[in-house]
Input
Amino acid sequence: MSPVSIGISDRAHDAFDNLAKQECRERNLLAVVQQAHSLWDEDGRLRCGWAELMGETGVKTLELLEREGVLSTGGFVGIDRDAARVERLRVEHPLRSWIAGDLLDSLRSPELENVGVINFDAYDMVGTASLMMTVRLLKTITRRSVERFGAAVIFVNADLDAVRRRGLACSHALRTHAEQLARTLVDDGDRRRRLAATDLLPEGAEASVDDPAFLGQVGGVEIYRGKPGGHRMANLRVILR
Ligand SMILES: C[S@@+](CC[C@H](N)C(=O)[O-])C[C@H]1O[C@@H](n2cnc3c(N)ncnc32)[C@H](O)[C@@H]1O
Output
């Protein structure tokens, strides 16, 4: 977790094992089903791999994907910097692929070669430069998937209310975040691939985003609260073609 979380965000505490987070995982899968058709084979399995930042609870995504029968063998890659956690998961789920270390140091590893869906829920604050830098690096994966499978999906899950705790407007930060994501993920001059920031965050969403009680979907963004009284998170679902 980044040092800015101290005193500003509650995301260091485990807010990931609850109904809201589980529904968010389910809607992630639904977005891939409904919006990235070319990633699926005719038997209803993903042709590409799914990469997940694990933490303590990423296994809930794995269990969901296994329950729904959408993974091919080796089609899930779990990543975490905590080597002991990864070794435990490797023993528990030997058919899956595991990376112990920083995702950004492993972009060219063979485990990630087939990945077309990335759940990047590191819980950075919305709109930080370091998050955008990370997303820029993840283009190694998304670009390859678009070329190979005709699409790529990236979920960027970030802490929205950490912005408010700093005395800044959530809507302004989220708008900047959406604009930067759209700009970062689509290569300049690539006319085939269009992604408008307003596809992610529609115009007029400001009042909802700034309302501390608002939870729900605005465009390609799901705003949810991981636990009662906890921070609202903004999960941007980006579909690239
Ligand atoms: C919020 S948790 C993941 C939650 C999980 N996906 C779920 O559905 O419950 C994020 C985890 O990813 C790890 N992490 C964050 N950035 C990472 C990176 N660049 N490479 C590897 N692990 C990272 C964090 O240390 C943490 O354990």
